[in-house]
Amino acid sequence: xxxxxxxxxxxxxxxxxxxxxxxxxxxxxxxxxxxxxxxxxxxxxxxxxxxxxxxxxxxxxxxxxxxxxxxxxxxxxxxxxxxxxxxxxxxxx
Length: 93
Hints:
With about 90 residues, the protein is of the alpha+beta class. It has one domain (about 5-85). It is about 25% helix and about 25% strand. The protein has helices at about 15-25, 75-85; strands at about 5, 10-15, 30-35, 40, 65, 70-75. Strand 5 and strand 6 form a beta hairpin. Helix 1 (about 15-25) runs antiparallel to helix 2.
């Protein structure tokens, strides 16, 4: 079962998409398909685009990824990593 992290305004990201967003940010021009959207990097020229999770505009963060109308910045991805590192492993079936 996937771990899901909630942001503000009723947005969520699963543990798998956290990794996908990191991959998109790490390699400019790369896109990654998810079951529900295509994830891509938000250009630095899109200065007023905001992170859906924290509300920071693109020009105030180092990097940002988007999937549809949802965007997540590198700072929120780092926080997601921290949260996910504290989730205990699922018990063996």
